[in-house]
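Run log, item B.
One chain of 335 residues. Sequence copied directly from the ordering sheet:
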Amino acid sequence: MERRTVGAAALGVGAVGLGCMPMSWAYTGSRQRGEESLRAVHGALDRGSTLLDTADMYGPFTNELLLGRVLKERRSEAFVSTKVGLLVGEQHIVANGRPGYVKRACDASLRRLQTDVIDLYQLHRADPEVPVEETWGAMAELVTAGKVRSLGLCAVGARSARRSGARLHDGTISQLERVQQVFPVSAVEAELSVWSTEALDALLPWCAAHGVGFLAAMPLGNGFLTGTLTPGEGFEPDDVRARHPRFTAEMMAANQPIVVGLRRVARRHGSHENAVTPAQVALAWVLAQGPQVVPVPGAKRERWVAENAEAAALGLTAEDLAEVAGLPGAQGSWE
């Protein structure tokens, strides 16, 4: 697989990563099976998808424990990205950016992951009660201590920006400019997909200008862009899409022209023996947005991991990219 470089630390990763969250968190619980997920992680490493993206809050904690079972055997083959800064309660999630907590959380993640160093340690969300510089300073001390190789930042939520009329990622860029004064940012993780392109306006150009890697979260639109979801089929209550405005039967039907367009491009590149899927076109489009972009599609089955990895070899033409850019905009709120 093609290799790409992540930011200031110049760490190399496979062009397509693996988002591990669906194995333990946020998606249909009845389909989460540990052994199947382990095969998916092994399959990703076998195919060169070396970036494994997790967080201590996924589960909570169980996702890191699962990855640790693989890393115990194959640490040298993996690029480990995990996150800190969010605590999961009974009915809520709160931010904690206190320096002492960050250091304890890192030690706990290292134990669960069965490794002595984290390749990319990301601040999941800034704590509104703690200056972000203080949190980032504690994370920088972890680099000095040899427990972490590089630091990243996840994009902040969008609701307040949309209400105020600001650009979607202005808050994230403000945080980035503050923490850059403390310690270099190696990567930013934010949503980017065919049906959610806001990062192209300002955030991705900021990363390109500052030599910062960009991890594209949800590059398959929470599964919608794969073309495998049926409008009206519904989701189990514990699946985040069951409460998501874009995943009502009405909105899924309204957005089908996007999938139809991806299928049209896919047919030009595939054959009966070697079919190309809408998901692969969607990932190839993300890869085409810049050499510092690494899509991190979530998956929990080896079949999907293999399909996603193959997208790294799919070269879209200028005509393909123009056609995808001309697809209808997504209908329905993303909040």
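Observations after the first pass:
- The chain has twelve helices and twelve strands.
- The chain has a mean pLDDT of 91.
Flagged for discussion on Thursday.
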